[in-house]
Design a protein that fits this description.
The chain is α/β, with parallel strands linked by helices and 294 residues long. Helices cover 30% and strands 27% of the residues. It has 7 helices and 12 strands. The radius of gyration is 20 Å and the shape is globular. It is found in: Cell membrane.
């Protein structure tokens, strides 16, 4: 009980520290990005924070994954408007108004954190598999941004040499901001003649007959009709056994980090594949599974 009270006092003290909202960006499909600054705030990739907005509720704290990179001079979260609290935050930030909002009109925000997750270990491996399902893609925004900053600054000191990224979602439109990030990374990697550094596959798990017809008609275009990326969107779900076997063949004798942010069912599947495709020989390929469930 004493330790719990100490922890509550620390959280109360941290929540009283001043947080400044420097920018509010409205993304399509009612998603907003809050860019903030706080004195002494230090983060690692994939971490999350608790956020309270007294203008909406004086007691409610809500967890959000950080989508900024540690190298940036601010920290950010993406909030999709799906409930009463997020709707209240949307209105408190003036996103329901057409005119430009002055900074002093933005609501006060309290932040507690950041708190660590498994994604922080990404840079401990030479090869990684990143798997994001639906909203579980948000931690990898931070990871991919940070990889890019490190790569631009000093690629020779970067242990991470290859990323296999898988994004599974029912509707990519809800995360259009993430597709924009992938477009930027794709273009920058091609400019540096290292397009092979990041291999990504986007799987659309939900569509209707009208959409399917539209996809077929535009399949031959240079860029994907849904995401605008050169990599075409795939339909259905990955054959994980084939994916693991292919990666194992391409990286013999490696320790490969498998990172998931998604549902428990997918975690069980990836865990079994990581075990079955790892060799008994210590010098063989080994898949190390790390998960973050929601």
């Amino acid at each position: 009980m004493f330790l719990y009270l100490c922890e509550r006092l620390v959280r109360f003290w941290r929540s009283q520290q001043k947080v400044v909202i420097t920018k509010v960006v409205i993304h399509p499909f009612k998603t907003i990005e809050l860019q903030m600054m706080k004195k002494g705030f230090k983060m690692e990739v994939g971490q999350y924070i608790f956020v309270k907005c007294p203008a909406v509720s004086k007691l409610e704290w809500h967890p959000f994954t950080l989508t900024s990179a540690p190298e940036e001079d601010y920290f950010s979260i993406h909030v999709r408007i799906v409930g009463d609290w997020t709707e209240g935050l949307f209105n408190a930030c003036g996103c329901d108004k057409q005119e430009f909002q002055e900074a002093w009109k933005l609501p006060k925000i309290a932040v507690d954190g950041p708190f660590g997750t498994a994604s922080e270990d990404v840079f401990s491996y030479e090869t990684v598999m990143l798997v994001g399902a639906g909203i579980g893609v948000t931690p990898f925004a931070s990871v991919l941004k940070s990889v890019w900053y490190k790569y631009c600054h000093d690629a020779t000191n970067l242990k991470l040499k290859k990323i296999y990224f898988y994004w599974l979602c029912r509707d990519t439109h809800a995360f259009e901001w993430f597709a924009d990030l992938l477009q930027s990374l794709e273009a920058q990697m091609q400019e540096r003649n290292n397009a092979d550094f990041l291999s990504y596959n986007i799987y659309l798990t939900g569509w209707d007959e009208t959409q399917a017809t539209h996809f077929v008609l535009h399949h031959e275009e240079e860029k994907d009709v849904i995401t605008g990326l050169k990599q075409k969107t795939l339909y259905g779900r990955p054959n994980w056994e084939n994916e693991f076997k292919t990666i194992a063949e391409q990286h013999p004798g490696s320790r490969i980090g498998v990172f998931l942010c998604g549902p428990e069912g997918l975690a069980d599947t990836l865990n079994k594949q990581s075990i079955s495709n790892s060799e008994a020989d210590p010098r063989g390929v080994h898949f190390i599974f790390n998960k973050e469930n929601f």
